[in-house]
Amino acid sequence: MDTPFGMAAMSAFTFPGPKLPRPAEGAPVALGRATLAGMDVLLDPTGALYWPAEDLLVVSDLHLETGSSYARTGQMLPPYDTAITLAALAEAVRRHRPSRVLSLGDTFHDPFGAERLAGPARDMLASLMDIAEFIWITGNHEKDGAAALGGSVHEAITIAGTTFRHIPSAEPAEEREVAGHLHPAARISLKGRTLKRRCFVGCARRLVMPAMGCLTGGLPVSDPVFASLWPTTRPELHLMGRNRVYALGNS
After folding, report:
1. Which one of 9, 104, 143, 197 is most buried, by most CB atoms within 10 A?
2. Residues 57-95: pLDDT tens digits?
3. Are strands 176-179 and 162-165 parallel, antiparallel or unpaired?
4. How far apart are CA 66 and CA 62, in angstroms?
């Protein structure tokens, strides 16, 4: 879901944020810590989530081969998105060294993305799959296109009582749930300007992950779809900075 970040009026899910210092290149990475969807997790500024108790790294909406997908219809974009996104994934894998990596769907931008994946990108993925077992959740963009990469493919999977799927369930979650699809982003006020940043949105029972794909858009957390997922409570927001994750509390 690629929705531009608009300049709509403030709502219950939009708020002034703290001052966010711009870290220097090479600055230490500061991980976020939170309890979300029944998991005590580390939130990574790449957009990944690491669940130490299960040695599981979770990512969402890589949308690999977005540029080449648009090129098929004559819309030319710089062809570097896959390399940039895989570099972020590799950074998260190197940092956490998980035994399993779970991708929450839309791993590719269309069902034929795996066929267009160039040799260097295939080699990078293969090297990551030598480190960890990969679990692919099917998404609405690529269906089961990630099956060609190896690993296992599922519509949804439950691990230690938490269910991982691509699209959040429509009803308020009774089970613990982690989903993607919505590409959440938040707007904050900083020195008279507004900044858009991707974010984790969640509570004790439900979490919506940010998109990792570098060409994906962001749906503002002020959008009514997020209010429908939390009709009676306000979720926590954890904002992605360059080198750290900022906990903004309840929106």
Report:
1. 104
2. 999 999 887 655 544 665 555 666 888 899 999 999 999
3. parallel
4. 9
3-state secondary structure 35-86: EECCEEEEECCCCCEEEHHHCEEEECCCCECHHHHHHCCCCCCCCCHHHHHH
Q: pLDDT tens-digit profile of 137-174? A: 998 766 666 777 888 999 999 999 999 999 999 875 56
Nearest to 47 by CA among 212, 187, 186, 179: 212
* Cβ proximity of 166 and 106 under 8 Å: yes
Q: How far apart, in whole angstroms, are the C-alpha atoms of residue 251 and residue 248?
A: 7
CB 162 within 8 A of CB 176: yes
Specify the pTM. Answer: 0.83
The 10 Å Cβ neighbour count of residue 59 is 26
CB 144 within 8 A of CB 152: no
